[in-house]
Amino acid sequence: MAKGKHAPAPGAVRKDKVIHPHSRKAQKMQSKAEKRHKLQGVVKSGGLKLQALGERLQWFRENLPLCLEEGEPMSSEVMLNLAEAFLSRFQEELDQIAMKNSIGGKNKRKNHQSRIDVIEFTMQTEKEEFDGCGVEMPNLFDQDNLSYFQQWDGELRFVQNIKLARFKRADLESKKFDDGNMEME
Prior knowledge:
This protein is mainly alpha-helical. The chain has helices at residues 24-62, 76-87, 91-102, 113-131, 143-151, 169-173; strands at residues 135-138, 164-167.
């Protein structure tokens, strides 16, 4: 049989042979490459969401008040203070950037403006969520969840075991959860 009459083995492409850009083989290779690239993006975005949630939970764990380590139940007032501290967690970085920008003469330009914009957008969005539909935080009113959360070592694979809930400013100010009632709307 003549050379080139048989289909090559699956996945076998000769490196010395040039493929025409409009051939079916080139289209098939392009399609596979696009699918592979698209699937990698999906995996990365899922991992990024999990990582962002893990960082948020780690912040709450590091900033838990020391009084909770003694086994006292969580109160709405403590949770409200924790939520407000969470909303203002970037303030120190904004102050440092403002101090760096204040140093200089006439011909200074705004440094770190993109970072300032990202921080201000994040703070505004989270504040609107807290005042409106609520911010997603670990449910620390549940004693079992609180004890698990305190023992959590920060591994992302155990994030799914932590119960989350949305807390509104109005609900925490009205001390809706102090009696142990966790009825969410």
